[in-house]
Amino acid sequence: MTALTLSTAAASGLRADAIVVGVAKSAEGLVVAPGAEAVDQAYDGRLAAILETLGASGAEGEVTKLPAPDGFKAPVVVAVGLGAPSEDTEEEGAAFGAEALRRAAGSAARALAGAKKAVFALPITDADDAGVIGEGALLGAYSFDTYKENGGQGGKKAGNGKAPLAEVALLGGKPRDKAYKAAVERVLAVTEEINRARDLINTPPNDLNPASFAALAQTAAKEHGLKVQVLDEKALAKGGYGGILGVGAGSAAGPRLVKLSYTSPNADKHLAFVGKGITYDSGGISLKPAGHNETMKCDMSGAAAVFAAVVAAARLGLEVNVTGWLALAENMPSGSATRPGDVLRMYSGKTVEVLNTDAEGRLVLADALWAASLEQPDAIVDVATLTGAMVLALGSRTFGIMANDDAFRAAVHAVAEEVGEDSWPMPMPEHLRKGMDSPTADIANMGERMGGGLVAGLFLKEFIGEGITWAHLDIAGPAFNEGGPFGYTPKGGTGSAVRTLVRLAEVTAAGDLG
């Protein structure tokens, strides 16, 4: 994990491999952002002009490298684009939004792979700015090299042959200030857990199955003082968890339901997070075609997010009780697999006619949601790579939010936007429920094709206990980035929703959720 430090030293005297400065667009052309004044002065005030000569425009995420000026111990200056200053920030020096700073720091950190230390001289006006810049840098520096030659050994990696940036020093951060120190501690806890989630998502399914995932949760629980309970096939059968068992029936790797509990002695609120954890989704008997199954190791991204968020809450010592439910199964075709037309009796007692075995996530979630409901938490939030329909609706960078309470949906959306996770509130039209009527069972696991993401949300709503506030995050789009990296987002697993869940826990602990 990349180290994060604060420094008030002069930029010229810091020993590092590079100094990162921000540049931005303006009506007059390229401008140097606050924080880099000393660097600009060392170029006789011509840094912007030199960068423009090199083709820099200040566009968001653009990276330009040039030799450092005479007298600097760092040999390279890295200029990263911040885009245009935000029009809604009136405070002097706060011309750039949190997400612009976060993304710029991530782009710079990724461009500095192989470096031991980089000094970030980006705009910092307070501890919050230090936090978002540190967060972006540590997330942008992430790489997954476990399966490459010499990967994970701290040395050179296969491919580009470069290890992640080893240390980020934030220039302008106050190392003795309590607010700055708290910001750094929070950044380290949250980014390390996001990167834990990314590692889990990127791990191939021959190494990550329900049992091994559960074992990792047990190890983390012991390390961070969490209570953990793991239900294996026998316990699931005894308890009547027909949804989880039905999805896992075709696999040689049996399903698991993991309960992770963080308890604060000062808490008066209880949140339950529920994550879909399909460690590989072939579609089952309703087999996915070629071209649609190669990345299905990522179908446990919801469980990874919940796992990471509960651990982060414990590390931060939040004054709220948080329970995480990881519904883990592998969806495979075999002679023992659930068939289209089978009827499953769920943990709630309801029966479900399985019309499509590739609509399996809602089945494992249904059992976990009912288990969470029995504890009567103040709110339940589930996270799942649930539907391709949500990707069609919102694209690959935005997750959908549904809820049984409009105010709670708005609150979750506000929290997600605050932490820089693109999301959008979605409706739950009651007329779509009729499409899931079954002549054989209480409900079918499929309904109308159009609005499939909304149908899935309506199905889950059937398994929420009466009077419990609930929200559903469909992260099918942003959970796994199949394109090139951008900002602080890597290729592969992204850790989508972790920041939203952690911030939701923080806001609840502070009594500000409403």
Going by helix content, strand content and strand pairing, the class is alpha/beta
* Helix proportion: 25-40%
- Topology, number of strands: 20
Mean residue pLDDT = 95
Number of helices: 14
Instruction: Specify the biggest β-sheet.
Output: 8 strands, mixed
Q: What are the low-pLDDT stretches, counting only 5+ consecutive residues below 50?
A: 89-93
Task: Indicate the topology.
Blueprint: E1 3-7, E2 18-26, E3 29-32, H1 37-42, H2 47-53, E4 63-67, E5 76-81, H3 98-111, E6 117-121, H4 127-140, E7 167-171, H5 178-202, H6 210-224, E8 227-231, H7 233-239, H8 242-248, E9 256-262, E10 270-281, H9 301-316, E11 321-331, E12 343-345, E13 351-353, H10 361-373, E14 379-384, H11 388-394, E15 399-403, H12 406-418, E16 423-425, E17 443-444, H13 452-461, E18 469-474, E19 480-481, E20 492-493, H14 498-509
Helix pairs in contact: 3-4, 4-5, 5-9, 6-9, 8-10, 9-14, 12-14
Defining key terms:
514 residues; alpha/beta; 8-stranded mixed sheet; elongated; 20 strands
Explain this structure to me?
This protein has 514 residues and is of the alpha/beta class. The chain has helices at residues 37-42, 47-53, 98-111, 127-140, 178-202, 210-224, 233-239, 242-248, 301-316, 361-373, 388-394, 406-418, 452-461, 498-509; strands at residues 3-7, 18-26, 29-32, 63-67, 76-81, 117-121, 167-171, 227-231, 256-262, 270-281, 321-331, 343-345, 351-353, 379-384, 399-403, 423-425, 443-444, 469-474, 480-481, 492-493. Helix 6 packs parallel to helix 9. The longest helix is centred in the middle third of the chain and has 25 residues, at 178-202.
